[in-house]
C-alpha cells in the first residue's frame, strides 16, 4: 500500500501560460511512453518477478513514476492557467476543452485515450526487464523532443530533471537484467526448448 | 508523491488455487469498473477540483484504490499458484497464459486491455463527483457478482471487505457532492446558460 | 421497433458556416458524453431493468436521444456547408475531410472513434440508474462548454435547448432511482453480502 | 426523430435457455457485422447522401436495423433466462456475468466493445453504397454461421428471418447504387482526376 | 514468403516540403482505408479463399499494396524533410513529432493508431470479395480527397497513379466475384438456409 | 517493393487437427508480440533509421517476419482442418467461428483485434533499436509458452524453428545497437540536453 505525501518530487515551475505546450506535454501524462505507462508497467510486473532485488526495484521505480506523473500534471495545469474557451479555440486546442475543460485526462497529444496495449509483460524476467530498459530509453527520447518544443527555461528544467531520472532508471534496470541473467546461470532455459 | 509501505491493507487469503476465479477476479484489476479505473479516475480529477475538501478526498480514496489494486493482484496470484500450462489449457484459460504466463495484466475477464475510455472527467465538479458516486456503485455491484461466483470463504471475505470500502467511498463522495452544491449556492451556474 | 418521422425535434439553425465549431460540436455526436452514448446506454439497459416504470423511462429517453443525435448531425452539416478542401486545410481541420469529406462520423473532436467502452451497465438497477444520472450531468457540462465556444446565437439556442433536456432527463432518472430504492425496501440486498 | 412502438418486428421465440448460444448470438448485437453496426452506418451516411431516394433508403433500412437489434436483444435475454452465476461459471461464460450480470452489452462473442472503427463512410456515394452492400453480405454470412451453431428450431427461424431481410437490403442497396451511377452519367468524376 | 527489391513501384517525388500535407497523407499509410489496411485484408483472406484464381489475386494485390505503403512512406518523409521542432509546433502538427519525431507511424491524420477492426473477413467468398471491392472504392475516394488537398503537381502525380491502381484492383476483384458466383452455380447455398 | 515467392520458409506440419491450439497459436499471428507486430515495427522504423546497416537490417528482418506470419497462418489453418461448427461450439472456441468461420483474423487468443498501439517507434535510433531487442525477447518467451501448450511434436518443431529465428534477430539487433552507439561516439547527444 501507498502513503500520499503532499509535496512534489520536483518543484515544477513555468514562466508563463503556454496552452500549446500543455497539449504536447500531455504525452508524458497519458501517452504511450509517458509516466503512467511506466508506472503501470513496473507495478504490474512486480507481482511475478521472482528475483527479490528486481522486484523491489520495480516497486521503487514504479512508485517514483507516479510522482513524476504528478509533476507532469501540475505543470500542465500551470501551462493552462487562465485560458478562456475562445482562446483555446483560437489556438486550435479546444478539442480537449470541450471534453475536460482545463482539467487533465489520460490522453496523448492527439487525444487518444491511454490503453494498457502500450504496456509489455510476458512473464519472462529477461524479456520483461529488457522491455523496461526500452521503455526508459523511449521516455528519455520523448523528453528530448519536448525540450526542443519549448523556449520556457523553467519547463525545460523540469523536463531535464525527469529525463535524467529516466537515465538512472535505465541504468538500474540494466543492472537488474545482469543479476537476473547471472542467476539463471547463463540461461539454462536456453537449452530447454 | 507516494511512499510505498510493504504491507497489504487487508490480508488476502485463499483456501485453494482456483484459476477460473483468478480469470474472473481480474475484472477488479483491469476491468472497466475495477480498482485501477477507480484510482485513475479520482487521482486525475483532483488536479482541477477546486473545493479543497473534495480534492483531498479524491487523493485519499484514489490512494486507497491503489492499495485495493494490490490486494486484488496478490489474490489473483494465489489463485493461479502452481498451475501448469496444460492445466490452464484444459480449463480453457490459456489465452492469458500465452501472453503473460501466470503473471498479471490490466485486462478484464474477456482479455480486453484497460483503457482510459472507461474513465469520466468533464471538469465540472457536480458532474465529476456524480460520476464518482456512480463508479463506486458499479464497483460494489461487480464485487457482489464476484462473491456469487466463488465458494471459497476466504476469497469471499476479501471481496466483502472491498465491497464495504466501496460503500464507504460512495457515502463520502455523496457528502462531497453536497458540500460542492452548497458552495455553489444552489447552482448559480444554473442561470448562466 | 421504431417509426421514423421526417421532422426534427428542434429546428436547428445556424447563422453562418463555422467549420471549427462543427469539429467541436461533434463531441455530442460521437464523443464519450454525447447523444449516441446516451441513447445506446439507456436502450441497452432497458433489456434487464426489472422495474416497469424505469424500463419505460429508459426507452423514452433513449429514443429522444436518437432525435438529439439527429439535431446535432443536421447542425454540423450546416456549419460545414460550402467548405472547400483547401479551406478545411487552412483551418487545420482537414483530418476529417480526408476520411469523410464534409460528412459525419462517430468521433469526438480529437477524431477518436466512438466505443462502447464509454458506456456503463452492470445489471444492478441502483448502479445503472446512478450511472445514467451521472451521464446526464456530464452531457450538461459538455453542452455548457460548447455554448462558451461559439458566438453564434442560433447555435447557442439549439445547445441551450439540448442542455435543458439533459436537466429534465437527470431529474427523471433521479425519480426512477428513488422508486427503485423504495421497491428494494431500503436495500434488502445490503444484508445479503 | 423516431417514435417507439412497443412490439417486435418478429416474434422472437426460443425453445429453451441456451446461454452459450446467447454468448455467440451477441455477434449480431455488438459485433463488427451486427445490427448496431448496420443501423449506425446507414443512419450516419444519410446526412450527406445527396440522392434523395438513396437517402430515404438509408433512413428506412437504418431504422429497421434498430428493430432487428431489439429482436436480437430479446432473444439473448430469453436464452439467458434463469441462469445462475455458478452455472455461467461452469459453462465458461461468466466473463460476461461479472461485468453485466445477465444483461446485455455491445460486445462481440469475444467480449470486445463495439467501436465505430467497424463502420465505413468516406462521403463518396458510390464507395459508401458499395460499403453498404458489402455490410449486408457479411451480415448474411454471420447469420448463416449462427444458424449452424444452434439446434433450436425457433432460434433458427428468427435467424432465417433476419438473414432474409439482409438479402432484401442488399438488393435494395444494389438498386440504389445503380441509380447513383446513372445519375453520375457514367461517372463524370472519373475524368476529373 | 517475400523477397524485398530495393526500388519503388513509382518514383515518388515532391516539389517542396509540406508538413501539413504529410500529416494528411498519412491517411493512406495508417488510416482505415489506407494501403496497410488493404494489404492486410487481402493477405489475410487468402488463407481460406478456396477458389484458386481468387486466392492468387489476393496475394498479388496484397503484395502490391505493400509496395504502395512504401511509396506513401517515402513521400511523407520527403514532405517532412528539414522540418524543425518549433516549425512543427507553429504549424500545429507537433503532436506527431513528440511521439515519433519526423518518422512514421501507423496512424490516421487524427493520430489514431491503426487497428484490425478496420478490416473485414467473414470467411464467405462472396461477402469477402464484395468487402474488397468496397475497400478499393473507398481507397479511390480517399485518394481523390487527398488530390484536392495539395497544389504540388508531383505529389498529385503519385496520388493519381495510386488512385488508378485502386480502380484496376476494383475491376479485378469484380471479375473474381463473378467467377466465384459462377462456381457456386447461382448460389446453391441460397437454398441451404 | 516485394516479390512473392510461393513457398514457405519452413515446412509447417501438424500431426492432427487441434482447434484449441489454433486459438492459442493466433497469438503469433495477431497478438501484441506476434509476427505481424514484429514485421510492422521494423518496416516502419526503417524510414527514418539513418545508419545504413541498421536500416538494411530492419528491412531484412521485417521481410522475414512476414514469412513467419505466413508460416503461422498455414499452421493455424491445418490445426482447424475439418472442424465443424458444433464441434467448435463444444470446444468453447466458436466465438471465432461466428465472425470468421475457419479463416484467420489479426487477433490475439482472447479475440482482441491487432492495434498499432502494440508497436514502438520514437525516432531515436538507440531507443528504437532497444525496443526491437525487447520485442524479440518477448516473441521468444511467447514461443516458449506455446511450446509448453502442445504435445504435437510437429507443431513444436515449427515453434522451435521460429523461436530460434527470434534469438538470431535479437543478436543482430544487439550488434546494430552497438554500431549505432559507436557511430554516435559515446552519445554526443547525451550532453546536448
From TrEMBL, chains A, B, C, D, E, F:
Organism: Ammoniphilus resinae
Keywords: Capsid protein, Virion
Gene3D superfamilies xref list: 1.20.1260.10
Protein name: Spore coat protein JC
Membrane spanning residue stretches: none
Family per record: Belongs to the manganese catalase family.
Amino acid at each position: 500500500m501507498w502513503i500520499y505525501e503532499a509535496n512534489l518530487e520536483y518543484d515544477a515551475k513555468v514562466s508563463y501560460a503556454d496552452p500549446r505546450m500543455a497539449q504536447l506535454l500531455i504525452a508524458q501524462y497519458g501517452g504511450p511512453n509517458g509516466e503512467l505507462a511506466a508506472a503501470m508497467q513496473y507495478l504490474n510486473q512486480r507481482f511475478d518477478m521472482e528475483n527479490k532485488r528486481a522486484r523491489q526495484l520495480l516497486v521503487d521505480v514504479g512508485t517514483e513514476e507516479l510522482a513524476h506523473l504528478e509533476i507532469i500534471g501540475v505543470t500542465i495545469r500551470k501551462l493552462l492557467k487562465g485560458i478562456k474557451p475562445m482562446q483555446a479555440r483560437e489556438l486550435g486546442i479546444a478539442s480537449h476543452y470541450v471534453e475536460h475543460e482545463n482539467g487533465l485526462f489520460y490522453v496523448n497529444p492527439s487525444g487518444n485515450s491511454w490503453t494498457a496495449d502500450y504496456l509489455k509483460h510476458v512473464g519472462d524476467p529477461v524479456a520483461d526487464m529488457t522491455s523496461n530498459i526500452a521503455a526508459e530509453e523511449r521516455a528519455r527520447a520523448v523528453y528530448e523532443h519536448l525540450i526542443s518544443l519549448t523556449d520556457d527555461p523553467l519547463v525545460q528544467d523540469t523536463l531535464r530533471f525527469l529525463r535524467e531520472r529516466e537515465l538512472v532508471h535505465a541504468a538500474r534496470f540494466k543492472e537488474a537484467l545482469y543479476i537476473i541473467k547471472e542467476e539463471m546461470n547463463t540461461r539454462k532455459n536456453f537449452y530447454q526448448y
